[in-house]
Amino acid sequence: MLLGAQWGDEGKGKATDLLGGSVDYVVRYQGGNNAGHTVVVGDQKYALHLLPSGILSPTCVPVIGNGVVVDPSVLLSELSGLNERGVDTSKLLISGNAHIITPYNVTVDKVTERFLGKRKIGTTGRGIGPTYADKINRVGIRVQDLYDESILTQKVEAALDVKNQILSKLYNRRAIGVDQVVEELLGYAAQIEPYVADTVLVLNQALEDDKVVLFEGGQGTLLDIDHGTYPFVTSSNPTAGGACTGAGVGPTKISRVIGILKAYTTRVGAGPFPTELFDADGEALRRIGGERGVTTGRDRRCGWFDAVIARYATRVNGLTDFFLTKLDVLTGWEQIPVCVAYEIDGKRVEELPYSQTDFHHAKPVYENLPGWSEDITKAKSFADLPKNAQNYVKALEEMSGAPISAIGVGPGRDETIEINSFL
Ligand code: IMP
């Protein structure tokens, strides 16, 4: 399993792609088109939002699990975009139990954020939160509902009953018509049908047959609805446990849990971020690291590496390994500060506080590590790295509590140092 160890955007697409050739199934288990993976294959760059990155590998079966929320219009346009570029997408499987992001959920996401004003979450505006809310409220629409018009109509009616009251009375918006939504959703049904499958059965049979199944988390640990910086989080469980519920695979079946860890820290949207930089260093990380969201085009907030967060990610996910990404971005700094602990109301704290108030008050305690100026993008092994880069990696590994098994030294597919195999 691969998942983000920070606030998302750690470079998961590259990590998944590295394993591409040896993996039989790549499974998304949560989130929706709020994710954004950039995968570079040769001189081609692909930006994926909803589809698993395994879609680019000809030998791999990409799977959208039951825990994912699917916007059908986004799904179909992402598929046709890939088809136009010659990518074969016919192997894709979509769980019939995955929930549909309906047009009214996108509307509710946007108006809610506007209504929250300065307390807004900074969501991607893709309807993710309202769709999961409907799921938990038991008024969600699932992929399988597209194939029973009567059931679909009843369910849309039930969902809109309350929503239209809220939209018209609270938000002063026009009510949404049931027929118009049903018609739009039915319009997608035939095109999606060939992909719909009992993915739980398929995946468990694949595991029994000793196939390699890769679970790919969207977002990151600190955006988890249970373990992240609530309420500034996404509405699903990107952490390791989410793969079991979101794909229907038992925890005993998962052998490796790999945390993707950026060599510094970024965050999109609102919420606390202790090591955030507001100076020229932050600007430089953003520029050199190309820190702009694949999905939203928003500039990412940037800061130094935070070892407290990395340790937390190791713990809540039971990480077995780290994939350290974007080490090359740090080339050129004389000293690189790393946050080793927090100071909260005058006290040194080594672990992530569970209290939201404490986390908002946390100030980073930095240790400066010596930097390097040599180009590292051509390094093929750990020994090829300059001594100070080696020491930076070793220090991060020691502080974070799990071995760093691969290091990204550039955006290209081959710009990766493999230390231990992930398979
Ligand atoms: P939502 O997932 O659209 O509801 O947004 C909730 C929070 O998660 C916001 O702060 C978003 O910026 C953040 N978020 C959602 N998806 C991603 C992602 O793929 N990378 C980074 N942040 C994300």
From TrEMBL:
Belongs to the adenylosuccinate synthetase family. It comes from Streptomyces roseochromogenus subsp. oscitans DS 12.976. It is found in: Cytoplasm. Mg(2+) binds at D9, G36. It is an enzyme of class 6 (ligase). The active site is at D9, H37, K135. GTP binds at residues 8-14, 36-38, 300, 326-328, 408-410. Homodimer. Gene3D superfamilies: Adenylosuccinate Synthetase, subunit A, domain 1 (3.40.440.10), Adenylosuccinate Synthetase, subunit A, domain 2 (1.10.300.10), Adenylosuccinate Synthetase, subunit A, domain 3 (3.90.170.10). One of its GO terms (biological process) is IMP metabolic process. IMP binds at D9, E10, G11, K12, N34, A35, G36, H37, T124, R138, Q219, T234, R298. Keywords: Cytoplasm, GTP-binding, Ligase, Magnesium, Metal-binding, Nucleotide-binding, Purine biosynthesis. SUPFAM superfamilies: P-loop containing nucleoside triphosphate hydrolases. It catalyses: IMP + L-aspartate + GTP = N(6)-(1,2-dicarboxyethyl)-AMP + GDP + phosphate + 2 H(+). This is Adenylosuccinate synthetase. InterPro entries: Adenylosuccin_syn_GTP-bd, Adenylosuccin_syn_Lys_AS, Adenylosuccinate_synth_dom1, Adenylosuccinate_synth_dom2, Adenylosuccinate_synth_dom3, Adenylosuccinate_synthetase, P-loop_NTPase. Its cofactor is Mg(2+). Plays an important role in the de novo pathway of purine nucleotide biosynthesis. Catalyzes the first committed step in the biosynthesis of AMP from IMP. GO terms for cellular component: cytoplasm. Pathway: Purine metabolism; AMP biosynthesis via de novo pathway; AMP from IMP: step 1/2. Substrate binds at V294, T295, T296, G297, R298, D299, R300. Pfam families: Adenylsucc_synt. The gene is purA. Its main location: cytoplasm. Binds 1 Mg(2+) ion per subunit. One of its GO terms (molecular function) is magnesium ion binding.
